[in-house]
Amino acid sequence: MQTINLFCLPFAGGSKYSYRDFEEIAPPFLRITTLEYPGRGSRIKEPLVTDLCALIEDVYQQIKNELDKSTYAIYGHSMGGLVACLLARKILVNGHQPPLHLFITGTMGPSAREKEEKKRHLLGKTAFIDELKKLNGSPQEILNNEELLDYFEPIIRADFKASETYTYEEDLPLNIPFTVITGTEEDMEPDQIMLWQKETKLKVDFRRMAGTHFFIFKYPDSILGIISKKILNSLKPVDHE
After folding, report:
1. Angle at 173 between CA 168 and CA 177, to 5 degrees
2. Number of domain units in the chain
3. Choosing a second label site near 116 at 20 to 30 A (CA), which of 48, 81, 168, 235?
4. The domain spanning residue 62 has which CATH number?
């Protein structure tokens, strides 16, 4: 069976190591490729990017030479979900073959007004750390360690600024299937999540999983199972030809 690339976009503060759980349990046909944003991990010496359009260009440059070589899908959590959608649009504008599927977790639709109202990147350090604790995604050993906080805070703040200063521009819906999964205890309304339907002509598969914003760490098997099944179903017509 052919190998399918799953390009993964990290959440705010994330790196190419953010989806290690996925890599460990991925089926043989699925190649997990997590992209690295500037200013962290293997790219720590590069300046942080606080403009979302510049970030989209960066990740596009990372994968553009691979897009027409093999079949692929795109996955992103939280900020990574927004990046995934905008990246797919850029890919199509540049004439590449489209992704088989877009998988989005932990975020509302790009047009949700709440995205423009939250300005966490402007908070002082104490209030900013309190916001991170509410998201329940940063280990306590980081939140309670001043040295680690000094390292991670500017990275997360830059990512928040990129997503929170993004201005939504309505465009034609994509002809790409979407699966959107959110946590039952996330701070977003159902109608904000449903706004993902504006981004595609096809019916979005909306799903819920028990948990807070970083429920993905609790259910990597289930999430990867959904991704794998969707990809295999997308390939069936090709296999029968």
Report:
1. 115
2. 1
3. 48
4. 3.40.50.1820
Has residue 135 been placed in a domain?
no
Query: Is pTM beyond 0.85 here?
Result: yes
User: For residue 65, with 0-12 CB atoms within 10 Å meaning exposed, 13-18 middle and 19 or more buried, which class applies?
Assistant: exposed
User: Per DSSP, which regions of 52-195 are E strands?
Assistant: 72-77, 102-105, 178-183
Q: What six digits make up the tokens of 53?
A: 């359009």
* Assigned domain for 123 exists: no
Looking up tokens 């360690």, which residue turns up? 145
- The type of residue at 19 is Y
15 is a domain residue: yes
Domain holding 18, by residue range, is 4-112+172-240
Long-range contacts of 114-121, Cβ-Cβ distance < 8 Å, separation of 24 or more: 114/188, 114/192, 115/163, 115/164, 115/166, 115/168, 116/164, 116/167, 116/168, 118/164, 119/164, 120/160, 120/164, 121/157, 121/158, 121/160, 121/161, 121/164, 121/165
Report the alpha-carbon distance of residue 84 to residue 236 in Å, rounded. Answer: 24
- Torsion angle of alpha carbons 41, 47, 49, 214, nearest 10°? 20
Would the pLDDT of 27 be above 90? yes
The tens digit of pLDDT for each residue in 156-168 reads: 999 999 998 999 9
Instruction: Tell me which H or E stretch contains 21.
Output: helix 20-25
